[in-house]
Amino acid sequence: MPKQSINMRLDKDLLNEAKKVLGQKGTTATVETALRNMINNRKAIEIFRKTSGKSKWEGFSDGRTED
């Protein structure tokens, strides 16, 4: 995938926290991981919205019953 050089002004505390949370060492890797996570989260939310309420829950499949 082609890369593009971009200058950004980032809050250092926010960037350092993101590095810790995402387990990244570099700024580029941190920003790319955060962007991928945001995109994946948005896609998951859209799938959830499209499928919400379209299936009926039939109970537990492992034989458990409610008592």
Q: How would you sum up this structure, described in words?
A:
The protein has 67 residues and is an all-alpha fold. Helix 1 packs across helix 2. The radius of gyration is 20 Å and the shape is elongated. The model has no long low-confidence stretch (mean pLDDT 89). Helices cover 54% and strands 0% of the residues. The chain has a domain at 12-50. The protein contains 2 helices and no strands.
List keywords for this structure.
67 residues, mainly alpha, 2 helices, 54% helix, 0% strand
Provide the β-strand percentage band: under 5%
How much helical structure, as a percent, in the residues? Answer: 40-55%
What Rg, in angstroms, do the CA atoms define? Answer: 20 Å
Number of strands: 0
Largest sheet: none
Mean pLDDT: 89
Overall SS class = mainly alpha
Distance between the termini: 55 Å
Bulk shape: elongated
**Helix count from the secondary structure assignment:** 2
Order of helices and strands: HH
Task: Write the topology of this structure.
Blueprint: H1 12-22, H2 27-51
Helix pairs in contact: 1-2
